[in-house]
UniProtKB/TrEMBL annotation:
<protein>
    <submittedName>
        <fullName>OsmC family protein</fullName>
    </submittedName>
</protein>
<dbReference type="InterPro" id="IPR036102">
    <property type="entry name" value="OsmC/Ohrsf"/>
</dbReference>
<dbReference type="Pfam" id="PF02566">
    <property type="entry name" value="OsmC"/>
</dbReference>
<dbReference type="InterPro" id="IPR015946">
    <property type="entry name" value="KH_dom-like_a/b"/>
</dbReference>
<dbReference type="InterPro" id="IPR003718">
    <property type="entry name" value="OsmC/Ohr_fam"/>
</dbReference>
Amino acid sequence: MHASVRWLENVAFEAKSASGHPIIMDGSPEYGGENRGARPMELILMGLGGCASFDIVTILKKARQDITDVRCELQAERADSIPAVFTKIHLHFVVSGRKVKPNQVEKAVHLSAEKYCSASKMLMDGGVEITHDFEVIEAE
C-alpha cells in the first residue's frame, strides 16, 4: 500500500491514495487552517468507520440479509495532552433492511470488532477503548 501527502499552503495538504483518489486535509482556523478539508484525526476516525462498515455489509450479504442501508455513527474522545490520541471510540451501526435478523447484525458487529477490522485492531492495540452497538430498522 502506498499514499502520498503534498503540502498546499498554510496547514492544508492533499493526500492521494495509490488508487489515485485525492483528499484535502486542513487544520482548524486556530492553527492557521481555512477549513478546506477534514482534519487528519477525523480521517482516522472515518477510516475506522469505513473499515468496520465494509465488514458489516460483507458479512450481512454473505448471511443473505436483505440490507438496504448501513450507517456507522462514531463518537470519539481524545487525550487532553499532546499527543491528543484517541482514548475511546464508540461505533453505533444503523442497519436498515427487510426482515433483517438482529442476531445476524450482532454477529457481524462482533466478527468485525474481534476478527476482521484492521483499523479497529490497530487502534485497540494502541490502547484505544473501542465499543460498539447497533440498531435495526425495518425498511419500507
